[in-house]
């Protein structure tokens, strides 16, 4: 999947320059001001934001503050660009939640490395969560808001884990979000679809039950909402790269 970057700057030359520098590696969305940026965030999955600070209307600091306080977008890393060469501006950028702060004029190489590092760190966390049987969903949280969101989502799935029909509509109703907003949030935060997140939550519960060694694989598949043991075994291997039997054999014995 090509990651997408939202670039916000009222200077057309900067937008053109960044389009040339980043266009070959990422899907780009361009906005001349905060209002346009908001409408893009409401429609698209965005993995990273680059914003100028000095803009008419909503400036970069205020935009950063708004994004980081909104549960729908607060997980998105933000790089602020500024011509202000002062500690006060740098501190203010960090206080409103910016993940990186780059002074103009800047080297395109420095910007590319910052972007790559932020996205790589997010990817590593997502991959670790998806492939580790015991890793908690909150490992993917990048803020207290994200942590509360993931905890509420996780608790609902676990409370209804025996139901084979849990779907995105049930999740959206519980989270008081529209279906599309919830899909964007989960996909951007975890790189998983809501269905995949539900599957992984089921399988992590299964890993816990296998470790307890109290139930057969057939019983466990029913307890976590699978209609068949073979489907359970296939999905377990798909995510954890081993069968339930291999997983059981790998566990330490007292």
List the keywords:
254 residues; alpha/beta; Rossmann fold; Arc Repressor Mutant, subunit A; 2 domains; 5-stranded parallel beta sheet; 9% strand; elongated; DNA-binding; transcription
Explain this structure to me?
There is one protein chain. This protein has 254 residues and is an alpha/beta fold. The chain folds into two domains: 4-127, 3-Layer(aba) Sandwich (Rossmann fold), CATH 3.40.50; 134-250, Homeodomain-like (Arc Repressor Mutant, subunit A, Orthogonal Bundle). It is built from twelve helices and five strands. A five-stranded parallel β-sheet has the order 2-1-3-4-5, with helices on both faces. Helix 7 (168-175) crosses helix 8. The model has no long low-confidence stretch (mean pLDDT 91). Keywords: DNA-binding, Phosphoprotein, Transcription, Transcription regulation.
The major β-sheet equals: 5 strands, parallel
CATH architecture of the largest domain: 3-Layer(aba) Sandwich
Q: Could you name the CATH homologous superfamily of the largest domain?
A: Response regulator
Name the overall outline. elongated
| Rounded mean pLDDT score | 91
Helix-strand pattern: EHEHEHEHEHHHHHHHH
- Rg is 21 Å
CATH class term of the largest domain: Alpha Beta
């Amino acid at each position: 999947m090509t990651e997408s970057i939202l670039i916000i700057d009222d200077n057309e030359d900067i937008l053109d320059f960044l389009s040339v520098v980043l266009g070959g590696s990422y899907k780009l969305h361009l906005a001349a001001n905060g209002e346009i940026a908001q409408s893009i965030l409401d429609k698209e999955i965005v993995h990273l934001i680059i914003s100028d600070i000095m803009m008419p209307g909503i400036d970069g600091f205020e935009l950063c503050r708004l994004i980081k306080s909104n549960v729908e977008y607060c997980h998105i890393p933000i790089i602020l660009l500024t011509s202000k060469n002062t500690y006060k501006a740098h501190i203010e950028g960090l206080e409103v939640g910016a993940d990186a702060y780059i002074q103009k004029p800047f080297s395109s190489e420095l910007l590319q490395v910052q972007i790559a590092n932020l996205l790589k760190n997010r990817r590593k966390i997502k991959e670790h969560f998806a492939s580790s049987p015991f890793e908690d969903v909150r490992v993917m949280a990048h803020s207290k808001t994200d942590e509360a969101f993931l905890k509420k989502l996780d608790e609902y799935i676990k409370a209804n884990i025996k139901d084979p029909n849990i779907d995105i509509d049930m999740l959206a109703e519980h989270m008081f979000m529209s279906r599309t907003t919830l899909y964007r949030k989960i996909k951007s935060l975890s790189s998983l679809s809501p269905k995949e997140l539900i599957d992984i939550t089921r399988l992590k519960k299964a890993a816990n039950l296998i470790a307890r060694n109290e139930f057969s694989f057939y019983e466990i598949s029913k307890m976590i909402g699978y209609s068949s043991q073979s489907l359970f075994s296939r999905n377990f291997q798909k995510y954890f790269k081993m069968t339930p039997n291999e997983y059981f054999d790998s566990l330490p014995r007292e």
